[in-house]
Structure formats: C-alpha cells, structure tokens
Amino acid sequence: MFSSARYVRQSLTPLFKQSVVPTKRFYHPKVIDHYQNPRNVGSLDKTLVNVGTGLVGAPACGDVMRLQIQVDDSTGIIQDVKFKTFGCGSAIASSSYVTELVRGKTIDEAIKIKNAEIAKELSLPPVKLHCSMLAEDAVKAAIKDYKSKQMAA
Amino acid sequence: MFRNQLQRIALFSTRSSLLRVTIRSSKIKVTPTLLPTSISQTRQYSVTTQGIPTTSQITELTPNEFHSISGEYLETLFDHLEYLGESNPSIDVEYSQGVLTLDLPPNGTYVINKQPPNKQIWLSSPVSGPDRFDLVEGKWVSLRNGLKLGDVLREEISGVIGEQVPLEGLDD
C-alpha cells in the first residue's frame, strides 16, 4: 500500500511541475534593483514653505505612496526629493524611479511626467501599470501641495 | 512509535479545534456592520490629483450594489468579446473572479478588473495606459479625463478589428 502511494506521488510530480512553473511570473531586473536598493527613501520637513508633500493611494487597495519635493524658490528647480511607499514591488520601484526622474527638473517639467515613461523604464506588465499611474499622481499631488503653500505664504 | 504519532495527531487536532474556536469568537467581535459603512463614508483614494471632490453618487453606492452593477458590466463585455472572438480567432478573452483579460493583437494585453475597496473598475490598456472608472449616473466614467470606459474600449477595439464595434449596453 505504501509503495503504491509513493508511486502515485512520483508520477504526479512532473505533472505538478508542468502546471506550476510556466504560470510563474517574475519582476523585471530593473524593478528588483529599485525594490532592493530604493533611491531617495525618507522624508523632508513638511513644515517648510518650499516643501510639497503628496500622499496618494488607498490602504484598502494595498498601495500608499508619500512623495516630497523641496523646491528652490528662485529657480523652481526640485533640489531634493524623498519618498516612502507601502505596497507591491512595482509600486516601490515606480516611486523610487520617479524620484530619480524629478530631481533637478523644474516643477513645470516634473508635472509633465507620464506614467507610460515609468512603465516603459521598468517594463511593467499590464496589471502593474496602475502602480506607475500612482507614482505620476504622487508627483502631481506634491507639486499641487507646494503651489498651494506658495500661494498662502 | 506508532502510538507516539497517534498522540501527536490527537494533540494537533485539539490544537486546531482550539484555534478554530478563537477565530470564530474573534469573528463575532468584528461582525458589527462597522466595516462596510466606514468604507462607503470615507473615500480613501485620490481619484484626481486636481482634488475634485467625489459625488455623493459614488460614496452612497453600497458594496453589494457595486458588485452587482460592475459584475453585470464585465459579463456583458465578456459576452461581446467572446462573440467577436468567434470571427476573429486572434482575440483571446478570459473572465474570472472580477478580472477580465483580453489579448488583442497587435495592441497587446488589456486587463479590466473590479476594484471593490474604492468601488471602481480599473482598466489597463496597452494603448491608452491605466485608468480608473467611477459609476456616475449609471455610466463608468474616468474622473481623470471624463472619458467613459465603454467609449475607450469601443474606440481601441474598433481600431484593431477595422470596423465599428458597437459593444451595446456599455456606457452607450
């Protein structure tokens, strides 16, 4: 009885492997690189007038991004940028990559960043395009916050 | 040795039954209808970065209404696409558990799914990119650009097929 059970298990193993292995999906190496070595993680002093903070995403959906920019008031250039993301590998990689993109840009240039640019760089699959859109939204929200602070000041 | 194993099994089964009891009792504590109402009352997602407030139509939609309306929408879409697939063998469409996957060469793969936490339908298009749609006056509308989901799909699918695809019953 035992031997027949073992026989069944052995004969099933290749079938199991066949059905599981091809459906496995892997993150692109660039996503893994940003995930393991995220760039510009941290926070800036949100009380400063030239710091804009963007907070986007829904905890219920599993993705929350906070992105902060520090802007040079005279030139409009983004001097410093920090982010913190709670979410999947693609969400973390998207926000990490977008911090590299916006640093050194003026706010007018940064607001034009499109999710397609992020998705292309990271080779995101269809289901993960939404992560790149969240990163685009985070930049726009941070710029909006910076602008409203400037208006008030 | 055999008895030892039996004891272990007995011990395990009592442990798991204990565990089940604790889970059951903790479930009872959670059940008060706090969860669905708190979700429907507070919008936890930034729909537009311009900060356009969400309408009461969206916040008042109950999770059950959302599931029946979005489920019906996706099933209608699936039926249309399956029908299209009969005359266009390159089209491949799958629908399960609120996620519709459409392979539409040469464009690529579309994913259209229910997003219950914020009562939206999400679209990932290889042509127009990602977008999120809210139920406004019975139509699924993107609050980012004002486009209707049905119109976006009609345009992109018609472009591939080479003739106007009506997709009846979808935001028309």
Automatic annotation (TrEMBL), chain A:
<comment type="pathway">
    <text>Cofactor biosynthesis; iron-sulfur cluster biosynthesis.</text>
</comment>
<protein>
    <recommendedName>
        <fullName>Iron-sulfur cluster assembly protein</fullName>
    </recommendedName>
</protein>
<dbReference type="GO" id="GO:0051537">
    <property type="term" value="F:2 iron, 2 sulfur cluster binding"/>
</dbReference>
<keyword id="KW-0479">Metal-binding</keyword>
<dbReference type="GO" id="GO:0002098">
    <property type="term" value="P:tRNA wobble uridine modification"/>
</dbReference>
<dbReference type="InterPro" id="IPR002871">
    <property type="entry name" value="NIF_FeS_clus_asmbl_NifU_N"/>
</dbReference>
<keyword id="KW-0496">Mitochondrion</keyword>
<dbReference type="GO" id="GO:0016226">
    <property type="term" value="P:iron-sulfur cluster assembly"/>
</dbReference>
<dbReference type="Pfam" id="PF01592">
    <property type="entry name" value="NifU_N"/>
</dbReference>
<comment type="similarity">
    <text>Belongs to the NifU family.</text>
</comment>
<keyword id="KW-0001">2Fe-2S</keyword>
<dbReference type="GO" id="GO:0005759">
    <property type="term" value="C:mitochondrial matrix"/>
</dbReference>
<dbReference type="GO" id="GO:0005506">
    <property type="term" value="F:iron ion binding"/>
</dbReference>
<keyword id="KW-0408">Iron</keyword>
<keyword id="KW-0411">Iron-sulfur</keyword>
<dbReference type="InterPro" id="IPR011339">
    <property type="entry name" value="ISCU"/>
</dbReference>
<keyword id="KW-0809">Transit peptide</keyword>
<comment type="function">
    <text>Scaffold protein for the de novo synthesis of iron-sulfur (Fe-S) clusters within mitochondria, which is required for maturation of both mitochondrial and cytoplasmic [2Fe-2S] and [4Fe-4S] proteins.</text>
</comment>
<feature type="domain" description="NIF system FeS cluster assembly NifU N-terminal">
    <location>
        <begin position="27"/>
        <end position="151"/>
    </location>
</feature>
Automatic annotation (TrEMBL), chain B:
<dbReference type="InterPro" id="IPR017789">
    <property type="entry name" value="Frataxin"/>
</dbReference>
<keyword id="KW-0408">Iron</keyword>
<dbReference type="GO" id="GO:0034986">
    <property type="term" value="F:iron chaperone activity"/>
</dbReference>
<keyword id="KW-0409">Iron storage</keyword>
<dbReference type="Pfam" id="PF01491">
    <property type="entry name" value="Frataxin_Cyay"/>
</dbReference>
<comment type="similarity">
    <text>Belongs to the frataxin family.</text>
</comment>
<dbReference type="GO" id="GO:0008198">
    <property type="term" value="F:ferrous iron binding"/>
</dbReference>
<dbReference type="GO" id="GO:0008199">
    <property type="term" value="F:ferric iron binding"/>
</dbReference>
<keyword id="KW-0560">Oxidoreductase</keyword>
<keyword id="KW-0496">Mitochondrion</keyword>
<dbReference type="GO" id="GO:0016226">
    <property type="term" value="P:iron-sulfur cluster assembly"/>
</dbReference>
<keyword id="KW-0809">Transit peptide</keyword>
<dbReference type="GO" id="GO:0006826">
    <property type="term" value="P:iron ion transport"/>
</dbReference>
<keyword id="KW-0813">Transport</keyword>
<dbReference type="GO" id="GO:0051537">
    <property type="term" value="F:2 iron, 2 sulfur cluster binding"/>
</dbReference>
<dbReference type="GO" id="GO:0006879">
    <property type="term" value="P:intracellular iron ion homeostasis"/>
</dbReference>
<dbReference type="GO" id="GO:0005739">
    <property type="term" value="C:mitochondrion"/>
</dbReference>
<protein>
    <recommendedName>
        <fullName>ferroxidase</fullName>
        <ecNumber>1.16.3.1</ecNumber>
    </recommendedName>
</protein>
<dbReference type="GO" id="GO:0004322">
    <property type="term" value="F:ferroxidase activity"/>
</dbReference>
<dbReference type="InterPro" id="IPR020895">
    <property type="entry name" value="Frataxin_CS"/>
</dbReference>
<keyword id="KW-0410">Iron transport</keyword>
<dbReference type="InterPro" id="IPR002908">
    <property type="entry name" value="Frataxin/CyaY"/>
</dbReference>
